[in-house]
Specification:
three-stranded antiparallel beta sheet; 154 residues
Amino acid sequence: MPASKTAPASDNRFQSLSPATLSKSEKSSVVTLALKVLSQRFRPGRAFTSPEDIEGYLRLKLTGRRNEVFGIIYLDTRHRLIEIAELFQGTVDGAAVYPRVVVQQALEKNAAAIVIFHNHPLGGKQVVNQPMIGSVLRKILGDDRMQLRQYLTA
């Protein structure tokens, strides 16, 4: 059989790896590499096509953080990325969030849509006062037509 007709070798060098077989430094290198790959994928101008894409990126980016972080993903009218920003940092169990700053930053970035995110460094399911945040944002904007979409993950 000619060489060109043989089955190609797997082009996925990572397929056989598992976390259990990696050392601590190798795991750190894999996470660093994954963040680099994702930063290329989540660059300004790139459209987000699903909440799962955003969730995967944020899970990796925020994993291992010792303090709560509150941030925003700014999107244009076609849900293309303008910028990802961490606006507030807190302690291990809370972060002060100022809705006025959230709205001010969204307007300065000329965002047509935003995705608000935060982490829970202690893990578990914690209660977040999302209705209160939404009502404060509505009051600041003075617009009853504002749409708040919420995607919660464990």
